């Protein structure tokens, strides 16, 4: 019963979001952004509904979602840690930092810690090149990071 109610809520809320955007030029991205803002990810039911309403194939909608790395098909953890993988950060120790973070959290890219608190995402440039290596925790930028600084960030949100 709870799954049916959740599915109905997704369908109803997604329909309302589509109603707002479907008459705009290029409505797919605004719809996906609003659906993800509403649910924290883009549920499969919503993806199918979006494709149907916009007269797109499921593959077209999925292709757009997979092209833009910020879209998720599963809920993220309570906090999202995005670690820069671009050249400036790599040249100043970003690769080792990324390895340390994955080891310390016990997860790989696009995974969430078993307690559901932190999701780890790679990003390609946070615009903090002069303060490399950099990361973003829940939308807040942090630069000149080392393993201890990142662990402190993670501990603060846990």
Per CATH, the class of the largest domain reads: Alpha Beta
Termini gap:
33 Å
Query: What is the level-2 CATH architecture name of the largest domain?
Result: 3-Layer(aba) Sandwich
Note the quaternary state here: single chain
- Poorly predicted regions: none
- Structural class designation: alpha+beta
**What's the count of strands?**
4
Give me the Rg, rounded: 18 Å
Q: What is the percentage of strand-forming residues?
A: 5-15%
* Helix proportion range: 40-55%
Count of the domains: 2
Task: Estimate the mean pLDDT confidence.
Answer: 93
Strand order of the main beta sheet, please? 2-1-3-4
CATH topology of the largest domain: Glutaredoxin
What is the N-to-C order of secondary-structure elements (H for helix, E for strand)? HHHHEHHEEEH
Strand count, sense and closure of the main sheet? 4 strands, mixed
| Name of the CATH superfamily of the largest domain | Glutaredoxin
**General form:** elongated
Number of helices: 7
GO molecular function: 2 iron, 2 sulfur cluster binding; metal ion binding; oxidoreductase activity
Binding site for [2Fe-2S] cluster: 84, 89, 125, 129
Cofactor: [2Fe-2S] cluster
Keywords: 2Fe-2S, Iron, Iron-sulfur, Metal-binding
